[in-house]
From TrEMBL:
<dbReference type="InterPro" id="IPR036388">
    <property type="entry name" value="WH-like_DNA-bd_sf"/>
</dbReference>
<feature type="domain" description="HTH asnC-type">
    <location>
        <begin position="1"/>
        <end position="37"/>
    </location>
</feature>
<dbReference type="Pfam" id="PF13404">
    <property type="entry name" value="HTH_AsnC-type"/>
</dbReference>
<dbReference type="InterPro" id="IPR036390">
    <property type="entry name" value="WH_DNA-bd_sf"/>
</dbReference>
<dbReference type="InterPro" id="IPR000485">
    <property type="entry name" value="AsnC-type_HTH_dom"/>
</dbReference>
<protein>
    <recommendedName>
        <fullName>HTH asnC-type domain-containing protein</fullName>
    </recommendedName>
</protein>
<dbReference type="GO" id="GO:0043565">
    <property type="term" value="F:sequence-specific DNA binding"/>
</dbReference>
């Protein structure tokens, strides 16, 4: 796991209903990258 995955999981633990677009902005990655990391 890298830093992006750890940040993604941390954000989801705090708010599991956050939209992908907001999650991507917080992680400073594209929506596609956030979606890929979440579902792969």
């Amino acid at each position: 796991m890298d830093k992006i995955n750890i940040k993604l999981l941390t954000e989801l633990m705090q708010n599991s209903r956050i939209p992908i677009t907001k999650l991507a902005k917080k992680l400073k990655v594209s929506r596609e990258v956030a979606t890929y990391r979440l579902f792969s």
